[in-house]
Design brief:
mainly alpha
């Protein structure tokens, strides 16, 4: 029988493992900077950053759900279907914040450096949410099908994320459009692959961001392993 203090201690340890506290702190910093911007400029410009930050939390919370299920001894593979599907659907939103820098330019009301910090904090938070959740999902795959397959999974997800960033940034598709318009999204995703010579810039964007995400993830995993040794 767990006491209240032991339950709180276990919850604290679990959230610490999921990097919940630094992620919350980083998100609160982004909200505070945005709030300061609204106050200084009397404008809600760049509100889309807050929406994108909210969407970036969705795959992370799904991965927390998965991490909780992994702690349960009686959890079967079908218990992971819903959180894993939701995670896969929304995962590109976390990395998408990195591409929001295209909207950074001089605006009336606040200096450019202020907006630069706002964009950077949001991008950093989204990227960290992506890395932590991907690491949890790799652990899930490793549990059921092994370590080698888990790395194949990582490479596949990184590649799909590059495609997702292209679909979101240039074609303005949203995650839920995969359910609402699956055939149109599949067509738009495959067109650059089927006609690479006429879509070289799109393929370049996709590969560049996929490589960026892969390198940052490998760095994240290396840091984690160093701390455990």
């Amino acid at each position: 029988m767990f006491t209240r203090s032991s339950l709180l201690s276990r919850a604290h340890f679990f959230f610490k493992q999921q990097l919940m506290y630094p992620l919350l702190l980083s998100s609160l910093l982004a909200l505070a900077i945005f709030g300061g911007r609204v106050y200084l400029s009397r404008s809600a410009l760049h509100l889309f950053l807050m929406w994108n930050l909210f969407l970036a939390w969705v795959p992370y919370l799904c991965s927390v759900w998965v991490a909780y299920l992994l702690l349960r001894e009686r959890a079967h593979w079908w218990n992971f279907v819903v959180p894993s599907a939701l995670w896969l659907l929304f995962f590109p939103n976390a990395a998408y914040l990195v591409t929001d820098f295209v909207n950074l330019d001089e605006k009336v009301g606040v200096p450019l450096w202020y907006d630069a910090v706002l964009f950077f904090v949001c991008a950093w938070t989204g990227l960290l949410l992506a890395l932590v959740s991907l690491n949890t999902m790799q652990t899930l795959v490793k549990k059921f099908v092994g370590g080698a397959a888990s790395w194949i999974f990582v490479f596949g997800i990184v590649g799909l994320t590059g495609v997702g960033l292209y679909l979101g940034r240039f074609l303005r598709w949203n995650s839920w459009d995969v359910v609402l318009h699956p055939y149109r999204i599949l067509h738009d995703a495959l067109t650059p692959v089927l006609h690479p010579l006429s879509h070289a810039q799109i393929l370049g964007f996709t590969f560049m961001f996929a490589a960026f995400l892969l390198v940052t993830y490998l760095t994240f995993v290396s840091v984690q392993q160093r701390e455990r040794t």
